[in-house]
Specification:
Helices cover 78% and strands 0% of the residues. The chain is an all-alpha fold and 254 residues long. Helix 3 packs parallel to helix 5 and helix 7 runs antiparallel to helix 8.
Length: 254
């Protein structure tokens, strides 16, 4: 019973995430933000198409696993590139900003090298297949960098002249929150085994949906409401004088 309820919740949140992803993609097209954040737009389209496609496959089948892991590998690469896309918007064009960008590149290379060494040194036959292990370690490395990016943006926001209304800050916030929760899910789930597989799945999809909500707030505009600047007072004498003056002008003209 509990397992069936958890599966239903995951499906409902899954469909909700697809709706939010579609809204974000359509809003970026409508507001011409694709040229501003092309990599993030590609990431959104990838996640949307993958989510729709996986709805028609059994979660325990080989086709489901193949589609999921292939899309996950591309998403890991796009997630790394989004870090530099955000940095390009939030950092000013000066030598110090180029130093920060180069530092992130070096840090990414070091993290990738460590993940590769750990994968090579792992015992054969332990855990998942080597390709899946590589994708998982790459994803965790990118999640760590994305969480670190949010910390850096928050710490340097005043110095960089940024505000929480900036779209680049919103993208970094969404990825940072999602990455932090995903790292917690990994530590308490597969690593320490404090959480069941169902609980880790709920936490993961819930964290991603929270990121989608954050991105929607920044990228999907709310319905426009025309501000009412002035309402005339209900004074019939004043209205009569104004209308009378306009009528006199009209009679003089014609």
């Amino acid at each position: 019973m509990a397992h069936g309820l958890a599966y239903l919740v995951i499906r409902v949140v899954w469909v909700l995430s697809l709706v939010l992803e579609a809204a974000i993609a359509l809003s970026m097209l409508k507001r011409r933000l694709v040229s501003t954040f092309p990599i993030f737009f590609a990431y959104s389209i990838l996640e949307l198409l993958t989510g729709i496609t996986l709805l028609f496959f059994d979660t325990r089948g080989n086709n489901y696993a193949l589609i999921y892991w292939c899309s996950e590998a591309v998403a890991v690469l796009l997630g790394l590139l989004i870090i530099f896309e955000v940095l390009r918007h939030i950092l000013p064009s000066n030598p110090s900003s180029r130093f920060v960008t180069n530092f992130v590149w070096i840090l990414s290379a070091v993290v990738a090298l460590i993940a590769l060494l750990v994968l090579v040194s792992a015992k054969p036959g332990a855990g998942n297949e080597p390709t899946y292990d590589l994708v998982i370690r790459g994803e965790r490395s990118v999640r760590f960098l994305q969480a670190s990016l949010l910390i850096m943006v928050t710490a340097l926001m005043s110095r960089l002249g940024l505000s929480w209304h900036d779209k680049s800050v919103g993208i970094a916030t969404g990825f940072g929150v999602y990455s932090a929760l995903a790292l917690v899910e990994f530590e308490f789930g597969p690593h320490l085994h404090f959480m069941s597989n169902t609980a880790t799945s709920l936490l993961n999809i819930g964290a991603y949906t929270l990121a989608l909500i954050i991105w929607s707030i920044y990228l999907v505009p709310s319905p426009r409401r025309l501000p009412i600047e002035y309402l005339p007072k209900l004074n019939l004498a004043e209205w009569n004088n104004v209308v009378g003056s306009y009528l006199n002008q009209w009679y003089r003209r014609y």
